[in-house]
């Protein structure tokens, strides 16, 4: 079975077929710019354009930068408001003619890191934080995902945290690495105070530049960079679709870390709509 993973980001919509047992891309990924405005119709077009580059896939996993419950997108902080309450899984599935699973982007990236990357074999409470256009979060307890945590919207100094410490803000305000590290530290210390995780995994575009600011971070919890970098969302989306399609892992609360085992961290959060059912 071939699964396509597609990651809808703030600046690009990227996809590739994925080896879901190894957590690797099977082909070079294809990217189109995220349409502006990123409304439902134009993003569905962009996803279809990415999917059209690849042949012979059986199902598709798609990440979305907002809350996703049962295949319906519930929030839209950094995309067009037309996504609020949109039946995303059904719309993608109708357009692509394949079963489609949709889940939050940070949940997908975190699930990939927990299964194959920086969080592999780690027990206890682990938090993935993606620093990109916004701040995405995913929480895993012994490999089990608590979906849609949205802790990037915690309030820091009276402001939404993602307006203080996202990579978009770093670029827009041309922050020095010292200033960015100080903002990220403040955010992570706040989360640390609330949740006491064992490990922070930092992903998103800026994870490639971790050497520039990780040494400057002041936080007690160990911090590591995501290892799957830009491909974590694509891989996590595909693993989620694979688990949902094969019926594995649909029992929240009993999901092992190993994405190849029956049940995966992502499947509990995902919802698949078959193209046949969609009409
Ligand atoms: C959204 C999250 C998303 C994050 C990263 C936030 O603004 O609310 O759902 O995971 O951005 O894209």
From TrEMBL:
<dbReference type="Pfam" id="PF00480">
    <property type="entry name" value="ROK"/>
</dbReference>
<dbReference type="InterPro" id="IPR043129">
    <property type="entry name" value="ATPase_NBD"/>
</dbReference>
<dbReference type="InterPro" id="IPR000600">
    <property type="entry name" value="ROK"/>
</dbReference>
<keyword id="KW-0418">Kinase</keyword>
<dbReference type="GO" id="GO:0047330">
    <property type="term" value="F:polyphosphate-glucose phosphotransferase activity"/>
</dbReference>
<protein>
    <submittedName>
        <fullName>Polyphosphate glucokinase</fullName>
        <ecNumber>2.7.1.63</ecNumber>
    </submittedName>
</protein>
<keyword id="KW-0808">Transferase</keyword>
<comment type="similarity">
    <text>Belongs to the ROK (NagC/XylR) family.</text>
</comment>
């Amino acid at each position: 079975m071939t699964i396509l993973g597609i990651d809808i980001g703030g600046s690009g919509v990227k996809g590739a077929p994925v080896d879901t047992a190894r957590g690797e891309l099977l082909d070079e990924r294809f990217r189109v710019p995220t349409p502006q405005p990123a409304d439902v119709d134009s993003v569905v077009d962009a996803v279809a354009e990415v999917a059209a580059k690849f042949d012979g896939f059986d199902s598709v996993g798609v990440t979305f930068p907002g809350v996703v419950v049962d295949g319906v997108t519930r929030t839209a902080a950094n995309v067009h408001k037309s996504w609020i309450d949109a039946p995303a899984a059904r719309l993608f599935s109708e357009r692509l003619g394949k079963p489609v699973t949709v889940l939050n982007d940070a949940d997908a990236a975190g699930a990939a890191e927990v299964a194959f990357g920086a969080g592999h074999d780690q027990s206890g409470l682990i938090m993935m934080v993606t620093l990109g256009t916004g701040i995405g979060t995913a929480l895993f307890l012994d490999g089990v995902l608590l979906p849609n945590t949205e802790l990037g919207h915690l309030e820091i100094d009276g402001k939404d945290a993602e307006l203080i410490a996202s990579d978009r803000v770093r670029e827009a305000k041309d922050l020095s690495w010292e200033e960015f590290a100080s903002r990220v530290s403040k955010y992570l210390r706040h989360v640390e105070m609330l949740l006491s995780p064992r490990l922070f995994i930092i992903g998103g575009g800026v994870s490639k530049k971790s050497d520039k600011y990780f040494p400057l971070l002041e936080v007690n919890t160990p911090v590591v960079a995501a290892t799957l970098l830009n491909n974590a969302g694509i891989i996590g989306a595909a693993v989620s679709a694979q688990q949902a399609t094969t019926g594995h892992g649909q029992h929240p609360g009993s999901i092992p870390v190993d994405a190849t085992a029956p049940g995966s961290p992502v499947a509990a959060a995902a919802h698949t709509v078959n193209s046949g059912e969609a009409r």
